[in-house]
Specification:
Blueprint: E1 11-15, E2 20-29, E3 34-42, E4 47-56, E5 62-65, E6 72-78, E7 85-91, H1 97-108, E8 111-113, H2 118-133, E9 136-142, E10 154-159, E11 162-167, H3 168-171, H4 176-183, E12 188-191, H5 194-203, E13 211-213, H6 214-222, H7 230-237, H8 247-252, H9 260-271, H10 273-296, H11 305-312, H12 314-323
Parallel strand pairs: 8-11, 9-12, 12-13
Antiparallel strand pairs: 1-2, 1-5, 2-3, 3-4, 5-6, 6-7, 9-10, 10-11
Helix pairs in contact: 1-9, 6-10, 7-10, 11-12
Amino acid sequence: MDFGEFQEGQTVLVQLEKSRLLGEFQRYDPRMKAIHLGNVKDFNTMKYHTRAVAIPQRDILTIHSFSSSSGECKKIKETSNKSIVSIESEKSVILTEEQVQDVQMTICNFEYIMQIDKRYFQAVNEMKDQAMVCGKIAVDVIGGRKGRFAKGSLLILGIPRKIFLVDLMSIGCIPDELKDILVARKPQKIIHDSCALNDYFHSLGITLADVSDTWVAHTSATQTTKHIGVNECVAQHLKLPMTTMTQQEEISFTKRPLDLEQCALAAKQVAFLHHLNDHLQEILLKTYYEACKTYQNGISQHDDPTYVAVRMGSKDFQEWLRKF
């Protein structure tokens, strides 16, 4: 395998079987068949991991490199026999290193709300303030994906640089202040696969207003109706390695107290929704504006009066002939 694609000092994200490491690529040792990284952080916690580390090639599942200028993502994929590695280079709009680190820090700095107190009202005010600034909020409910038959355990609300985890089991319901945010025209609610979740909210007397569904955007952008979860969608469009929440992990959210790892897992469900929504809308708007331009030039690019007559109608054609 040719590691010449990577430059010394370039930031790379290495996916291992049980961890993800973010560090600076230093060199590849062909004799030991290992890559050397420096200034390594744990990608999940963004905490300092070690000054330098050598990672055997056989342990690497994927590697992503970040390029803030060209937007090029180079991805090393492991084959089935785990001995041969091939490299793919694909042009794609991916997040910069700074954006990814910001999201990871947001995941680590979530705010857990389990009662109606001063912290709760501060969180509500912060969400309302953000509604006036960015106009969007990411929404999900752990345990709410079975619609009206579900019993949600955790309401997740994400604004840029802040994620709020509202413990519905401890509070007992969705408070009125949060209901007001959900039913208001602003902020726009970003949800992945909103159908079942909307049924859950509807059973509680909450009608969501102004929803941007990233799964619907995905189906429009890719022309496929195959269902994929939010983490798969992030992996496909933002080119970031993500793990899907298992059914067992979701069941564990019905028990209290929640540990830090569970809270971080919940925060991940909405952490990248803002970036994913922006990226998918950019794809859809590009197609829309291209269609607008094609339609705009539909007549002006033709010199044939007959073609123009058909497009404009016979009456306009007769008037055009008289003037001509």
